[in-house]
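In response to reviewer comment 3 from the previous cycle, which asked for concrete evidence that the modeling workflow produces usable outputs, we include below a single protein chain processed end to end. The sequence was submitted unchanged, and the resulting structure tokens are shown without manual editing.
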Amino acid sequence: MMKLFTLTALTLSLASAAVAQNDCAAGKTLHDGKLTIATGNPAFFPWVIDDTPESGQGFEAAVAYAVAAKMGFEPDAVDWTRSSFDQAIQPGAKDFDINLQQFSITPERQEVVDFSIPYYSSAMAVLTTQSVIDKGAEATLDSLKTLKWGADANTTAVAMLAQLIAPKVGPNLYNDNVDVTAAMQAGQIDAALFDLPTALYLSAVVVPDGKILGQFPADRTENPDQFGLLMAKDSPLKPCVDAALQQLIDAGTLAEIEKAWLSETTGVPVIE
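The workflow returned the following structure tokens.
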């Protein structure tokens, strides 16, 4: 945890140095001199740690402060608020400047709200159980090929499984993902592919003794879900937010934050 705290502290300390560098947001926020950022109620691990975004701990909390710093806002100039997911994606005025809640960027949503450029491309992850790991399953392609897989026959999961893993035995096919997770709980299959956010939820809430064995780099997946910072439609802040994110991408800072909070903190290794 010390390494993660150091990364967050570094991100927050950069804010002071950034204040004089960027006045793009001046006069464009809800409250002059403040940046109001929304998250979920509650906000969950690993996106926000202990439901306390003010700490800067967690992937989206750390991204929020890093973006704020590049836009010229010191940490004490960031105000947090809460919103439901459904409330945030509705058309109309907002009580926040930007909102981070793992919002996938879709054409339908872009008709009523604005999104930043992506700050995260969803990796595909391997959901399994502790008993399968205890039997020797490892986060390597050779090991994954030997497992019994399940997939929703009505989605692209079958094609993704063939593309990413190519198991020795074809997957058991089910009507939906509810049936897939039920089959896992019944011991009929060893593993299934889900995007990382879904896998984190399923392993924590749905599948008893559920574990995430590993995750693939996002660039190994065709058309991955991409998350964007949500803003009101035609927000004057969008160019500022996009520029801040691009700077973080170009400097490698966004990749460092992702590695710290979505790989090291969760203990989910990357399968190369």
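The mean pLDDT is 90. We consider this sufficient to address the reviewer's concern, and the full set will be provided in the supplementary archive.
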